[in-house]
Amino acid sequence: MTKAPVNQTSARRQFFYFLVICAGLWVIMNVVAVIGLLVYDSQLVKDIATVNTDNPKVIPALYFLQLVTMTIPLFAGPVIFAAWVMRKPAEYLKTTWRFTPILFVVVFFVMMVSSPLIELLSNINHQMVLPSWLKWLEDWMKQSEENAKQLTTALLQMNSLWDCIKNVLLVGLFTAIAEEFLFRGGMQTILLKWTKNKHTAIWVTAAIFSAFHLEFYGFLPRMLLGALFGYFVVYSGSIWPAVWGHFLNNGTAVVATYLYQNKRIKLNPDDQHIFTFWQYAFSLIIIIILLLVYKKIAGGKNSPELNGEKLG
Predict the structure, then answer these.
(1) What pLDDT, on a 0 to 100 scale, did the predictor assign at position 90?
(2) Is 63 part of any domain?
């Protein structure tokens, strides 16, 4: 029996349920984690808040917090929504493997040639200056950025190969799976039903994905990455090419940081003035071509319609 298209009202309601479940689970897991740390060692909580790495317990605690307060709820929220609320996990999470593996190769090259364009958008983002009457907001954004940078620096302080492997798994693989299930799986699917336009759903999801990280001076490059991941999903009908691309982006950054810290390479991965204008242009052109190639290879077998809805 053919399923009736999801109407706009029900899609709106789905989005509300999705947000309540994901936000509620995130709050619960954060409260549980903080209470657990307070019971275990109240001083440790203060040292985490100030990123005091002189305390040897801080780094393991940060790994614990990353898993319990971010990775687990980000993954579990969309799974609970798709499997228990909507009872359609495959439709919402796009976990099918029915696509040609060649798409993984195309995604690999997209991610490899995206670096110049990411750098350009990052540099544009860093030039952002808000009006004087919004100075309070700009100060808050800068403070949030600095806090996030301190935590990331602490987590990515790697003195051994095992430290690198741990971060490739935690920051690279686990984070990629959790965030793709949340954003390109649950959220983008609902917005696709709501707006009935794949480009709107992809870019709105990408903007929310970027804002979620609270790193405002990296908003534009992260939004671009989110959009790329979105097109990977829509054109293939599967979440896994996006997970692969997300993993490549995060994992490459971890490995490059490890190699730089241990003086295996001289190029600082945080340097944002590596490429030239022509390399920026080349990056943009090649990404567009590769996306068209990706779309053609995917063949649109899984992506043009969802539940009988013709997409724009």
Answers:
(1) 92
(2) no
Residue 46 neighbours by CB distance under 10 Å: 11
Name the residue range of residue 159's domain: 92-310
Structural domains of the chain, count: 1
Q: What is the pLDDT of residue 9?
A: 55
Rounded CA separation 127/271 (Å): 16
Q: Indicate whether 73 belongs to any domain.
A: no
Characterize 104-139 residue by residue with b for buried, 16 or more Cβ atoms within 10 angstroms of its Cβ, and e for exposed: eebbeebbebbbbbbbbbbeebeeeeeeeeeeeeee
User: Does residue 75 lie in a domain region?
Assistant: no
- pTM for this model (two decimals): 0.89
- Residues 260, 69, 17, 241: is their CA dihedral positive or negative? positive
Neighbours of 162 (CB within 10 A): 9
In a domain, 211, yes or no: yes
What is residue 112's predicted lDDT score, i.e. its pLDDT? 95
**Positions of the chain with pLDDT lower than 70, given as ranges:** 1-9, 300-312
- Contact predicate 18/5, CB 8 Å: no
Give the integer Cα–Cα distance in Å for 258 and 219: 24
Burial class for 2, CB neighbours closer than 10 Å (0-12, 13-18, 19+):
exposed
